[in-house]
């Protein structure tokens, strides 16, 4: 993993280390932190253990270099794929995507569409118009399998994510009211209090591992609150989230996490059926689908989706946003001096760091984006490529907190557009407001290592920040 070109994009100037440098630095940090554990107790020891787990994961990934899973079969080019459209792109394990995934996508913009032989073969649309069009045509682009490579194998589909209309519509109607603006407004006080408590704890330290100390616990505590669970359950969900979603090269580890999560959810559903509360699970138990009561396994399925969709994405959005602000004090100063800019800053940070990479499966032979698609073809709908389209955004490579008509697709489009977008926006705006009220100036710690992961959701593994306390 070499160092990135600092001129690759306007927001990718973080000087990452080589594999050997990163491994050596992380080994030193692991040894130092291990030596400190015996002197710690209570929450400080728990936080140190979480950071140690994260450091070990980052070290193992760095030492492995470019990661390739066992199931990454490379097929021959199908007859309907023109030879000139074949390009060896791997948005999951490619070293270019592990250095700067957004710059890696930018390199693909010289053609309207590509076909990659990785992960069984898949098309990559690069134009905003085509990507938006695919999202809005579920009859041609099915959501039956939304990941490349496929997610942990499950006996049933994730409702409603992996259903197409009209089946999708019935379940969407069940969860949509739970995350509508009115419902989010009712949770504003809890979101503010959760965020404020974390910032109050972090600010006096003068440093933080941003993911472990803030970007992971903040949305996870909100999620446990939504489920009606005590806040001390949050670390358990953080651990499950990392095992399930950040172990693409360890299928058995992901499968174990899925089993543990579902076992927990089954017990929770039975408890709420016996004793309802004012929470999402109880609301789902009182819901109906197509005029019939919703069943336990359907509720479990919906809660599992809320878990994987609501935690990792907000953590990723926070980490990319604060990385950018740590590297660009002029932008940070804008929102410190004028907090009224924060809502539009949230939209622009979501645009330039559109990190979600859903996939679709073609349902029938058809011509689309100037190529012939065949039934069963996989298609990647990268939201970052929409953000980078100059036909969609003027000055698309410039980060502008005053941008008008910001039609980014960070939350997707069409019938499967993210139902939790209102909650996510509220969490992001709250984080930017309350953090910068107490910690207006900060930077990435000198000599520390920042590592990234790619795949279905681009994110950071760690982000060490420092400031004057």
UniProtKB/TrEMBL annotation:
Top-level taxon of origin: Bacteria
Stored Gene3D superfamilies: Cytochrome P450
Classification via PROSITE patterns: CYTOCHROME_P450 (PS00086)
CDD domains: P450cam-like
Keywords on record: Heme, Iron, Metal-binding, Monooxygenase, Oxidoreductase
Family: Belongs to the cytochrome P450 family.
Name of this chain's protein: Cytochrome P450
């Amino acid at each position: 993993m070499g160092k990135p070109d600092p001129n690759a994009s306007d927001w990718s100037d973080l000087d990452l280390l080589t594999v050997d440098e990163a491994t050596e630095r992380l080994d030193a940090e692991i040894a130092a932190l291990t030596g400190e554990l015996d002197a710690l107790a209570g929450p400080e020891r728990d936080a140190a253990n979480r950071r140690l787990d994260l450091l070990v994961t980052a070290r193992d990934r760095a030492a492995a270099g470019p990661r390739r899973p066992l199931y990454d079969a490379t097929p021959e080019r199908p007859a309907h794929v023109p030879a000139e459209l074949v390009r060896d792109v791997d948005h999951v394990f490619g070293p270019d995507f592990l250095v700067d995934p957004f710059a890696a996508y930018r390199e693909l913009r010289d053609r309207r569409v590509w076909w990659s032989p990785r992960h069984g073969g898949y098309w990559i649309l690069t134009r905003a118009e085509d990507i938006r069009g695919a999202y809005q045509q579920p009859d041609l682009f099915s959501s039956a399998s939304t990941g490349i490579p496929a997610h942990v194998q499950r006996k049933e589909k994730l409702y409603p994510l992996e259903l197409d209309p009209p089946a999708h519509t019935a379940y969407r109607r069940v969860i949509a009211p739970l995350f509508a603006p009115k419902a989010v407004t009712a949770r504003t006080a809890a979101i503010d209090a959760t965020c404020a408590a974390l910032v109050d704890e972090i600010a006096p330290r003068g440093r933080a591992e941003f993911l472990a100390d803030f970007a992971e616990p903040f949305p996870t505590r909100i999620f446990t609150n939504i489920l009606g669970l005590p806040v001390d359950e949050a670390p358990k969900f953080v651990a499950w989230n990392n095992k399930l979603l950040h172990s693409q090269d360890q299928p058995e580890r992901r499968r174990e996490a899925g089993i543990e999560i579902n076992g927990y959810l089954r017990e929770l559903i039975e408890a709420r059926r016996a004793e309802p509360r004012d929470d999402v699970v109880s609301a789902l138990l009182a819901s109906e689908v197509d005029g019939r009561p919703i069943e336990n396994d359907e509720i479990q399925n919906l809660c599992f989706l809320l878990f994987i969709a609501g935690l990792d994405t907000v953590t990723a959005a926070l980490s990319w946003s604060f990385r950018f602000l740590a590297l660009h004090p002029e932008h940070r100063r804008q929102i410190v001096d004028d907090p009224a800019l924060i809502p539009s800053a949230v939209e622009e940070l979501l645009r330039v760091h559109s990190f979600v990479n859903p996939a679709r499966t073609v349902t029938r032979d058809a011509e689309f984006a100037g190529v012939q698609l065949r039934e069963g073809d996989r298609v990647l709908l990268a939201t970052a490529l929409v953000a980078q389209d100059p036909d969609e955004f003027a000055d698309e490579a410039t980060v502008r907190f005053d941008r008008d008509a910001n039609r980014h697709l960070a939350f997707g489009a069409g019938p499967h557009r993210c139902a939790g977008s209102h909650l996510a926006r509220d969490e992001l705006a709250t984080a930017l407001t309350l953090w910068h009220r107490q910690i207006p100036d900060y930077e990435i710690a000198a000599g520390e290592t920042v590592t990234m992961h790619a795949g279905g959701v681009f994110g950071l593994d760690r982000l060490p920040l420092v400031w004057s306390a």
